[in-house]
Amino acid sequence: MRVEILDPRTDPEPEYWARLRVTAGLRADWAWEVLAAQAWGARTVQLVTVLFDGTTPKAVVNAAWLGAPLHRFSFTGATSRPWFGAVHVRGPGSGAVPGWWLADDVPITALTETYARAMRRELGPGCLALVLRQVTEEQAAQAGRFKVVRPTERIWTFPVHEWSDPEAWLMSLSRSRRSNLRGIFRRVRENDGLEIRIETATTDLDVVRVIEAMRWNDDKYGGKLIPRIRVLTAYLQALVAQPDVHSTSYIDRATGDLIAFGTALDHPTVPIVRSWTQRPAAEGGAKYLYFYHLAKQVEWAIANGKRWVELGKGKSQEKQSLGAVPSDQAAMAVPIRPW
Amino acid sequence: MAWVRVAHCAIVWTFGWRALYRQVVRSSFATVPFYRERWALHGRTDPVMVAGKGERDGAVPAEELAGRLPDLVPLAGGSATPDPLRGLEIVLHQCARISPDTLIIGAAPEYHPRVVAFESTPDEPRGHVLAVGTPGQLAGVGQDIPRVPLVTFAERGSEGLLVDDLLGVLGGVRDCGNWHVDWPRVYARETPLGLAFTLLLQRSPRLVDIVPAGASGRIARCPQHRTPVIAA
């Protein structure tokens, strides 16, 4: 297999990229300008690798090169040559989706062997391991003999294809959640002060306000040891400008303040509800908007004939009560043969 | 915290104004997304520090920062809101006679004990009074009250403090009649776009080589105080 390694920061978009995205069903976060903005904002080097069979792309991988020395609060030095480290395969800009796509006839060993060796050739003999995130159990079983597999947080998905209309979805929920949701719908309907703005491929989003809200969220969930990766204006602008990204802003009509913001990345069968951020309750935030937002996403997915809606990690109780189903995930580390 | 300021001035004197600026540039390139992207995008991966290299000598016009303030926060986090009166408490004391008994009308340092707003100015203020504000605000104050105008580059005359919405107070006219830069905290250099200012002590939002609108002139040394001034 031929291997092409690209750095989205400096390399131009390959001419096959648009076709590859359609074939592989890669969402808007894989658009080249979004990848470039993400790579500029990342602390480590981000590499996109395409594996070819002849001239046909058969696999694509997004990975970060975590080479020592790593710094918590600074970018990897422009001229630094890390001498040992690991390749961390994760979805661009999100840890809740796999960072690779394989054609149907390509086994996962293409990653642990062909890809791993290509990365070792590119990054030097210090590239010691490959870490894959969001691996399923079957995929982990197919990999070679030497590996470490550890379960990670489960991700949640709405089985939208099981519901014929929003009413069927509501009837599948528990009685208390159902009446709670109906109350929320009524509350939003009767709240004249709340403006809900749904935009697709927008270029005039007030990015600074959204990022301000996202930072409250970061401060709420961020750890002391490993900082949250901050979303940058260039990344958000590039993402919401994609034709298959829907952004929803909840705005207080009286003051013009942003109360909550969410994005959803479209896909023919499995769209993903990507980010959700809202003001703290003390500053005018409303917790019920999260349920309202998810309910609207379900209604939209049912109306557009989607099969699943991915929700990502965390908030298990809330997601379960809305009818989402969990799927087990694991992280797998594979050593890279140094010869 | 007076000793911190004294120690800082001593460091600047000892190791040089420019060395401190270079340290801020180095740290901004390593930790602030905006500068990382900007300085590296133009065909280079090292920060622009050498005069004459890079696009426009590395300077950023202030209007290009509109809507990008969150990207000026270093990776370690910090505020994204600039303070338009940053540095007032230091520069005002250098450029006007102020004692704790002075009644300041308008903009005053945070800790000053006697402050009134322009709207609630008493008709016959007693004691030592000083009015501080933009020329528009000062127009409504009595003619006999001493005043310190806060001017932008475009409004610069022969007195007052030089302010910018983004960078704060950059300097002011001292007793020698020259426009002094607040050099322990602000670095200034000449670029093809005009004078570019760097805040040496503000970590977030990080402002490096920013050119305010209409910032022309050159950097010289005051013959009396031996510190940097903005000439012409």
UniProtKB/TrEMBL annotation, chain A:
This is Acetyltransferase (GNAT) domain-containing protein. It comes from Actinokineospora terrae. GO terms for molecular function: transferase activity. The keyword Transferase applies. Keywords: Transferase.
UniProtKB/TrEMBL annotation, chain B:
It comes from Actinokineospora terrae. This is Uncharacterized protein.
